[in-house]
């Protein structure tokens, strides 16, 4: 057990991290993908081309309370992160009763990761995914460790299976990668030595998962299964010659997001869990196999692997070794990132500063583009880049419309097709240079240029445009 004075110090440190997380969420401007999901939230529906609907629902909740601000967009996710922390705390206590401080260990490991410190602040589908997978683990911790509940035929156990299925269905309403947990859980139920499939609970859970998934299924059915096909198509590429590079990038990205020491503890814990809690390996193996297959064709983005993080945090808490050093180093890394976010204390060049590259200068850029559009007699700003269109739209520039030409917009109901004659076309030219005689604008982080945009007045609007 942790002495009372150390426990007080730990909870104080966690409270400080929580406060800093709120400050960062309020102060750092939105990144383009967040603005894209904000546009979704203005047109709530059962799904979208890229992801299911849950992130849009959370953003709508936050902006209803706090307005169209960075904090409002992120508020629902921040509340969700707090709930996920609670779910993992309770799950660890239930899974590892022999380790009295397992719940606290889970909280400390989670908050020592950069994934929790910075990755779950932006409003992305990964946030509700993490929340509902954590809920699923809490419910499973009761459903499969039914001490004192009357065995697998107990109605109370049925309720826990139902909650686990509901959590998994809502995770699928957040991001399609949750299907990997569904596959793993089905394998565990069917092939576990405890023969869970003979009891009603897992079947009740499966029914609850299906009911929770209905909005996503209905939307996909009405749109030719576009969401499933888009995400499933990622696994069809084949570039085995670059597999080593992609695998190296995958491992490096996960070491960064977990922080190296925490990553080692969690991986050791996952391996040790195979003897006592086979559910952890069953849930993790499908995702691991899919990611290893994917590196034979393309990069695995760092955030894709977050589907495994509830499992890793729990096994690290239950079976990992001493975590004092891991927590201290992870916490220090998180504080350094927060300091960079809030103060820009390290003067990094634009191409090495992802925070500024994604979030800085959008308001000033939008104002400058509006002025140039008026000078050119244009009534709209037009771009082919969905992220750029979304970032500009969030600024709500007065006097011009924001138009985009991208397949994604055709899947959002309620968007308009305005009639315009002259537009100012905006194209991301990255870091330049722009050829002489070509109109352009820079986006700045204070006095430092971050990104340049090529501008062109156009009168021919051939193609499909949508606002």
From TrEMBL:
Taxon lineage: Bacteria, Pseudomonadati, Pseudomonadota, Alphaproteobacteria, Acetobacterales
Species this protein is from: Bombella pluederhausensis
Protein's membrane topology: Multi-pass membrane protein
Source organism superkingdom: Bacteria
Name of this chain's protein: Glycosyltransferase family 39 protein
Annotated compartments: Cell membrane
Residue ranges of the TM segments: 71-90, 102-121, 178-196, 203-221, 250-271, 278-296, 302-319, 326-348
Main location: membrane
Residues annotated as domain Glycosyltransferase RgtA/B/C/D-like: 50-219
Record-linked Pfam families: PMT_2
Entry keywords, A to Z: Cell membrane, Glycosyltransferase, Membrane, Transferase, Transmembrane, Transmembrane helix
């Amino acid at each position: 057990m942790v002495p009372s004075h150390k426990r007080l110090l730990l909870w104080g440190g966690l409270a400080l991290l929580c406060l800093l997380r709120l400050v960062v969420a309020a102060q750092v401007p939105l990144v383009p993908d967040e603005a894209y999901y904000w546009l979704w939230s203005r047109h709530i529906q059962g799904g979208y081309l890229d992801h299911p609907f849950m992130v849009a629902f959370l953003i709508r909740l936050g902006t209803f309370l706090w307005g169209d601000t960075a904090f409002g967009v992120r508020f629902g996710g921040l509340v969700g992160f707090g709930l996920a922390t609670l779910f993992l705390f309770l799950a660890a206590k239930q899974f590892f009763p022999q380790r009295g401080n397992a719940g606290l260990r889970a909280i400390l490991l989670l908050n020592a990761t950069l994934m929790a410190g910075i990755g779950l602040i932006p409003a992305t589908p990964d946030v509700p995914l993490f929340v509902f997978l954590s809920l699923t683990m809490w419910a499973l911790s009761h459903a499969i460790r039914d001490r004192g509940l009357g065995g697998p035929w107990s109605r109370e156990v049925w309720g826990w299976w139902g909650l686990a299925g509901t959590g998994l269905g809502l995770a699928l309403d957040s991001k399609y990668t949750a299907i990997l947990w569904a596959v793993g859980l089905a394998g565990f139920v069917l092939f576990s030595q405890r023969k869970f499939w003979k009891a009603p609970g897992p079947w009740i859970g499966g029914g609850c998962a299906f009911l929770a998934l209905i909005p996503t299924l209905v939307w996909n059915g009405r749109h030719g299964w576009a969401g499933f096909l888009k995400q499933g198509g990622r696994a069809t590429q084949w570039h085995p010659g670059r597999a080593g590079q992609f695998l190296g990038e995958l491992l490096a990205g996960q070491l960064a997001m977990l922080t190296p020491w925490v990553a080692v503890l969690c991986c050791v814990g996952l391996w040790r869990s195979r003897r006592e809690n086979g559910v952890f390996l069953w849930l993790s193996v499908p995702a691991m196999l899919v990611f290893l297959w994917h590196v034979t064709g393309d990069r695995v983005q760092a955030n894709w692997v977050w589907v495994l993080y509830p499992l890793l945090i729990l096994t690290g808490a239950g079976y990992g070794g001493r975590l004092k050093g891991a927590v201290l180093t992870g916490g220090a890394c998180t504080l350094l990132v927060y300091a960079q976010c809030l103060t820009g204390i390290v003067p990094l060049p634009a191409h090495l500063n992802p925070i500024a590259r994604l979030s800085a200068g959008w308001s000033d850029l939008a104002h400058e583009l509006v002025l140039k559009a008026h000078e050119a007699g244009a009534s709209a700003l037009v771009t082919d880049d969905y992220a750029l269109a979304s970032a500009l739209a969030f600024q709500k520039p007065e006097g011009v419309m924001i138009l985009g030409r991208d397949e994604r917009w055709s899947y959002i109901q309620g968007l308009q097709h305005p009639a315009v004659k002259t537009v100012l076309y905006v194209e991301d030219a990255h870091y330049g240079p722009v050829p002489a005689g070509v109109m352009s604008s820079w986006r700045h982080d204070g006095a430092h240029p971050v990104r340049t945009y090529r501008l062109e007045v156009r009168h021919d609007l051939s193609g499909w445009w949508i606002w």
